[in-house]
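Dear support,

I submitted the protein below through the web form. The confirmation email said the job was done, but the results page showed an empty box. After a refresh the structure appeared. I'm attaching both so you can tell me whether what I see now is the final result or a partial one.
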Amino acid sequence: MKKQVLKALQLDENHERECKLAQGGLPESIWETYSAFANTEGGSILLGIKEHRDSFTIQGLSEKQIIKYQKNFWSVLNDRNKISRNILLNHHVKVVEYDGKKLLEIQIPAADRHDKPVYVGTDPMKGTYRRDYEGDFLCTEASVRAMFADQRDKSIDSEVLEDMELDALNMETVKGYRVLFEQLHEGHPWNKLMKDEFLIKLKAAAKNKKGEVSPTVAGILMFGDADRITDVFPDYFLDYREECDEKGVRWLYRTHSNEGDWSGNLFDFFYKVTTRIDDDVAVPFVNRREGIRVDRVEVHDALNEAVANALVHSNYYGRRGIVILKHGKEITISNPGTIRITKEEFYAGGNSDPRNPNLLKMFGFVNVGERAGSGVDKIMTAWEEQHWEKPEYDISLRTERVTLKLQVGQIVYIPGAADLRKDMVNESMYEYDVKDLTDKELIIMDYIKAHTEISMGKATDICGYKTKSATRKIIGKLLDKGYIKKVGSGPKTRYRL
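What the results page shows now:
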């Protein structure tokens, strides 16, 4: 019955809706729902119907009730002392019929970010609601402040930090960025500019009110030292962790912005993290027609874009910072700040509204995250091509965070590539006979050759196994053949050529 009713009302089962009997007048909760729908993804309120888990109870409304409810609804909606903003037009409120009974449908679109927050009463901190699968909920003050901040056309990352001088920037990071920029843009006129001029062109710096050059918010985030960044954003924190299941071992590797032995800025963090993540994606022995080794494929670019998305979209006033966690084959990327477009637009790609557009441009100049913020389709396509588990996005409005979960493994398909053992023109570059090794053995040997050594856990990971038992057999055969040797003992055991 429920499906039939929804179909008749031209609503699909996933459509956000709220059903209310409304027999005694407009329910007070209707305004909380109005605020929640407007501040989230939009939805429909149906009056005269009660929704159960698997069915509806349709009471219907009389003509007198409909006229009265419409009049009262518009009266309250246009009263600025009761509702902050009316985002509806006449066609959003209409009478619909089902089985001879009349219902009142109120369609509420998602408000533009310039119109948020939409709130009940005169105090946005006490009357702003959002909606999730549990229903309408009151937003935190931090969430409301974030909505007000997102109203602005001028981005926060373009603001000039009037009281800061350029010595707040880490010049080693700036130098590294310029080297990469010049490599990628040979002959670019910016390559001839002095440091200050280059930073101004990059939107990393600007003239302050005194006519002196100061960093912008984008500049301090991209190139600053962590202690200076936290002067602007007290909750700023970047954290990358590799966890394991071994008892007594909290993590295999960790780096974060407060370590003090590196800058702690976005640019350096990006390359520290993506270098390690790239290494975790195993590429089999392959070569193109010319016999050239393939080390990077679309998945690597998609991973880099996922990290760039988090950095570009973050609300740096938000709590808990950016956390990237690797546990086995799973990589989780979480950042503060919700998306500024609808979920439909988010998943479709091609439509981006980055919170920090100047950061986006800076990364784009060095070929990082050129579509950051709208590259979800790129990530999905890359994973689908490898037949890996579909990436999962959790966009939590209650915690004001976006979390992406990625399952990674061995690359199984590379367009235009062939198995090296079948197509290699020069096997003499290896100290071992590739014909004597299985696919899994070759993957392990290749990794050791590139990284000097391998652990049992890493071997299990790149071979695509869930447990270490199968890996131990492969390692054992390589040891028996004399191709590798064991170094160390216990959790520190490693295998080398």
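Response: this is the final, complete result; the empty box was a page-load delay. Confidence is low (pLDDT under 50) at residues 285-292, 416-430.
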